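Bumping with the actual sequence this time:
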Amino acid sequence: MKNFHRFVAVGDSWTEGVGDPDPTRPNGLRGWADRVAEVLATRTDDFGYANFAIRGHRVGEIVEQQLGPALDLRPDLLTLQGAGNDILRTRVDLDALVGEIDTAVGRANDVGATVVLFTHGSPASGPFAALRGRIAIFNELVREVVDTRDAVLVDNWRIREARDTRLWDVDRVHLSPLGHHRAALEVLDVLGVPHEHPVFELSVAEAATRQARLRADLGWARTFVGPWAYRRLTGRSTGDGVQPKRPGLSPM
């Protein structure tokens, strides 16, 4: 099993760690990438970790603003996660979008990095269910990239237990601390990295009534959809003014 010495993460709010608060860390967030780095750091004496992810970034911004500085660090492991902010747009060219990801993976391979890519999970129900077909096409195109590059895949679409609401933050977009823990284990597993972190078995959740689900959906829409729509209309982003939390390699 290969040990990694220079781990660099690029992406959006998921990789930044939104949903997993920790006031002792940069940007006040921990997240799955930090959790992966914590394990990798125990396997070598010269480990360094950087994280350029910024909430709200689309794939074009990840490639244009994050990838260059990330590759300048000559990583031997790069995680590239994103496209959720693109898929939520009214119109998106999925072939062009994944083409950008493919080119980015090629650039990372050229500097000797193994790349971890991610599919998006399956929104079988709820407000994002209408995007299921779009997400499925995106995921299949990402699998094709993995087939032709030095990359491994965390296939969230096929992780059925990831639909459990306890793995998600109240905004239904970001992972909860438990979800970030689970995501870190998935990354470590696809890399073949041994770890002693337990996979928490979730008990069967009590099914909510139709009325309870409707009340929850309405409350969610008032709290989260309205502000998101306002940002879209005004050209603003949650990432405006946010800086990468770890813009250089440093030990954990």
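The tokens above came from a reply further down the thread. The mean pLDDT is 88.
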